[in-house]
Design brief:
The chain is mainly α. It has a single domain, classed as Methane Monooxygenase Hydroxylase, Chain G, domain 1. The chain contains seven helices and no strands.
Length: 222
């Protein structure tokens, strides 16, 4: 039987790692949605589910890293192939960290208990929805090797930042007027900060896709 060519072996390993990354993305998206839902409903059981699920993301991250190291060691990739492997390794790290942020939100929900909200905060669900949308689009740009679309995804982080600043200003102003809500307000700021960081990490994925496909660093696309 004829042995597979080095190119075919590398392509097969690329496909396997890409599939694993997309699976990680699905788990991160679910954790993100569930953490925000747990906050809205004060659902401790759902929050605990998010916390427990983070271990699987950690395991998958290290499996992807091992696969990337094996490809570098055994296939001796160069140029574009090497950039792709490094990008996949970076994506695994970013996705695992996003899972940490979702877990952070869930842990805050557990600390908040049944405390009532200090005021309506539409920014938090809006940030969560935008993170979900950006994450799905960023992974699509990675799978399609589309730097132009990756640039568009990264630009959407400005809206997450705007929502975060608006929430921050309103919550801080409310705490200044009523010191009794400082603890509850601080929890809300932590939740929003975790969502803002998820947006930043999605932007990092976009930058990696651009670098992987063009060799350009940062959100630079002609």
């Amino acid at each position: 039987m004829e042995s597979a060519s080095p190119r075919r072996l590398l392509d097969e390993r690329f496909t396997a790692v890409q599939t694993e990354l997309l699976r990680m993305g699905d788990l991160v998206a679910r954790a993100n949605d569930q953490s925000v839902q747990a906050w809205r409903a004060r659902d401790r059981a759902l929050a605990e589910q998010v916390v427990a699920g983070d271990a699987e993301l950690n395991r998958m991250r290290y499996e992807v890293e091992e696969s990337c190291l094996a490809m570098i060691a055994t296939q001796q990739p160069a140029a574009g192939d090497l950039r792709a492997i490094l990008a996949m390794d970076s994506l695994a790290v970013e996705l695992e960290r996003m899972g940490d942020h979702a877990e952070g939100i869930a842990k805050i929900v557990l600390r908040m208990g049944d405390e009532p909200p200090i005021q309506p905060l539409p920014e938090i669900p809006a940030m969560g929805e935008l993170c979900r949308k950006m994450l799905a689009e960023s992974l699509q740009t990675f799978a399609a090797r589309d730097p132009k679309a990756a640039h568009r995804v990264g630009e959407q982080d400005d809206e997450i930042d705007r929502l975060y600043r608006a929430l921050f200003d309103r919550v801080v102003a409310a705490m200044a007027k009523d010191p009794s809500i400082v603890e509850r307000g601080t929890y809300l700021l932590w939740i929003a900060h975790n969502l803002e960081r998820i947006g930043d990490r999605i932007t990092n994925i976009s930058e990696r896709v651009i670098f992987m496909t063009t060799g350009r660093i940062g959100m630079i696309y002609p």
